[in-house]
Design a protein that fits this description.
single chain, 263 residues, alpha+beta, Guanine Nucleotide Dissociation Inhibitor, domain 2, 2 domains, two-stranded parallel ribbon, 7 helices, 7 strands, elongated, binds flavin-adenine dinucleotide
């Protein structure tokens, strides 16, 4: 492996948690892989409908439904999704190729639990926003990102009127930013869609679905392997167990008198 600064790291075994398509098609290179695996990785779906808007706030939201800017049970976590029809409209906007004008939002204020994250009296509000397609019909995220964030803040203001005036700073993370900053192709937060045909032994591909790859010593161990994305570490643990099993097998099958293949 060669790092950006040119440092070379050699190892008989590598577990990659980088997006599986990047690992296989770009870092290994399609010319070194069976054509069936290349085709599977080209078909692997890694699209997105999510964005994040992170806000630094001068005070807590003062909700119409439960007023008060002193910390209360309404503050740590809340979801903006008043009805199924609302969600359906949000989805309809995305199907038509745009971001949801009335988005569904999953909001957390982590400073309600950890006061060290912001100066005294200030808060952080992080909004996970649906839907924000990676590809926008007739526009681009460069053109839309601030309008999108303005609308997010406006909608929050419908529920907590003090909120727009309390915003000190904001960070907008579009699906394109997730791809560029974190290597999440298509902006998919789970390194690939978590649909049935992309789980179990088929994640990320039938030809690389057991954490092993056709490249000897190269394993996959990130969210693009079973059981997929989430802050749980299960793909990495499973991959480590497969590496250990292969090591044990290598020891048992080492030819007599030639020592062990690995220490
Ligand atoms: C916005 C967002 C919200 C989420 N919300 C939740 C949630 O609420 N609950 C939940 O359980 N999960 C959530 N997830 C998913 C969860 O964070 C991931 O599934 C999990 O972190 C994946 O872990 P990983 O080790 O597989 O990959 P990562 O933590 O993504 O690690 C991969 C690493 O590889 C690096 N990398 C990428 N490309 C290259 C390259 N070419 N060369 C070298 N390094 C590279 C990346 O910088 C990164 O450090 C969310 C993810 C996102 C993006």
């Amino acid at each position: 492996m060669v790092l950006e600064d040119g440092t070379e790291l050699a190892s008989p075994r590598v577990i990659s948690t980088v997006h599986p398509r990047t690992t296989l098609l770009d870092l290994v290179g399609r010319q070194h892989l069976p054509s069936g695996l290349v085709e599977e990785m080209e078909r692997y779906r890694s699209r997105s409908g999510s964005a994040k808007v992170n806000l630094a706030l001068a005070e807590l939201p003062n909700f119409r439904a439960l007023p008060g800017v002193e910390l209360g049970s309404q503050h740590p976590e809340f979801i903006i999704n008043p009805s199924i029809d609302y969600l359906d409209r949000a989805w309809g906007d995305a199907v038509a190729g745009g971001w949801s004008q009335d988005p569904m939002m999953d909001c957390v204020i982590p400073t309600t639990k950890d006061r060290t994250l912001a100066p005294p009296g200030r808060h952080i509000l992080t909004c996970f926003v649906q839907y924000a397609p990676y590809q926008l019909q007739g526009s681009s995220w460069a053109q839309e990102r601030e309008k999108f964030a303005d609308r997010v803040v406006e909608v929050l203001g419908e529920y907590a009127p003090n909120l727009p005036g309390a915003v000190l700073h904001r960070q907008v993370v579009t699906p394109l930013d997730m791809e560029r900053e974190y290597g999440l192709l298509g902006g998919n937060i789970f390194q690939g869609e978590m649909s049935l045909d992309q789980l179990f032994l088929l994640r990320p591909a039938a030809a690389a679905g057991s954490y092993r790859t056709p490249v000897v010593g190269l394993y996959l161990g990130g969210a693009g392997t079973h059981p997929g994305g989430g802050v749980m570490g299960a793909p990495g643990r499973n991959a480590a167990r497969v590496v250990l099993a292969d090591l044990r097998r290598a020891r048992w099958t080492a030819p007599l008198g030639r020592g062990l293949p690995v220490s």
